[in-house]
Amino acid sequence: MTGPGPLLSARDLSVRFRLRDSVVQAVTDVSFELRPGRLLALVGESGCGKSVLASALLGLLPGNAEIRGEVWLHTGSEPVELTSAPERVLARQVRGRRVALVPQSAATALTPVRTVRAQLVETLRELRPGKGDRHREADALAERVGLAPGALDHYPHELSGGMIQRAVLAFALAADPDVVLADEPTSGLDRPLVDRTVDALRGIAEDGRAVLLITHDIAAAERAATDVAVMYASRIVEQGPAADVFGDPWHPYTRGLLAATPARGLHPLPGHPPNLSDLPAGCAFRPRCPRRDTCTGDPALAGLPGPRALACARPPNGDRPC
Ligand SMILES: Nc1ncnc2c1ncn2[C@@H]1O[C@H](COP(=O)(O)OP(=O)(O)OP(=O)(O)O)[C@@H](O)[C@H]1O
Fold it and tell me: Hey, whose CA ends up nearest to atom 11 of ligand 1?
């Protein structure tokens, strides 16, 4: 990836959950960068570790989690390493301020007994220093995310799912964050609303922010992403510019995810992802890989010539990598 430096960079990030009889390997050796003006889509089937990764970036892991690696936020006067930052720094300077989260279930993110405007104005008063016309700022935020300002005067239950989703985006932008993390922001929405939501996220990136879109909706990722990281069984297995990865996927898992989209005939990926507390030895995708009978490799994610990276035993060799 070229262009301006990253606003957030994760290096060899791993998360383990210690349970009574087992250890869940939720995130393993994940590295990526979030850059201004770009939207990185983190895609993969349910349970592969995407949400745990987002929680790790914000210091929101539960007590039984062990985290390794580094996450650097480069947006203030000095870089902050988020995995070791004190909770007071994360709470007062990072979460909701420099790094905003668009949560998975938008409807439950808002209080049902107050209008959206009352909640947004209160959030603006808390997050923006100095005096200002918070109602006017709320209207401007609503317009920024494609919501008519009049909708703010309603209670959450009076709004449609798509309007709520856009209201939640407005909350995420209240502090003018540099980085926006959106965790499955389109779950439960119909296709036109999915499109509008991811278009709004893409617009937020184009304003100069860095956006991480976590989704298992490949069509949504294809529509909005500038870059993509494909996650399988806690690891990133393919990474690169979205046009390259979606246009010419190299990892058999990426190919399978794409083949399962409606636009490509809905061919389901055979088998199921492995249990993260009982991962097979070697390549975790092998039991589902079309080349499992002839491939015994166990590659780590490795950079290729150009901006792409791949974890597959058949690296590019002039033809196709696998
Ligand atoms: N507190 C926890 N203790 C133990 N295991 C956990 C905990 N939180 C998450 N996990 C496990 O971590 C793994 C990754 O979960 P995660 O929610 O990140 O997946 P995901 O890719 O976001 O899937 P989904 O889209 O369904 O949310 C799962 O096996 C999950 O059961």
Answer: 26
Q: What is the pLDDT of residues 207-219, one digit of tens each?
A: 999 999 999 999 9
ipTM at complex level: 0.97
- Residue 175 pLDDT exceeds 50: yes
Q: Which residues pair with 72 in a beta bridge?
A: 9, 81
| Calpha distance 105→125 (Å, rounded) | 24
Edge-to-edge strand list for the sheet holding 235-241: 99-102, 179-183, 210-215, 39-43, 227-232, 235-241, 309-310, 302-303
Ligand 1 first shell, C-beta below 6 A:
17, 19, 24, 26, 44, 46-52, 62, 64, 184, 216, 276
Express each pLDDT in 229-251 by its tens digit: 999 999 999 999 999 999 999 99
Pocket test of ligand 1: the residue of 30, 43, 50 to mutate, having most ligand atoms within 8 Å of its CB, is 50
CA 104 to chain centroid: 11
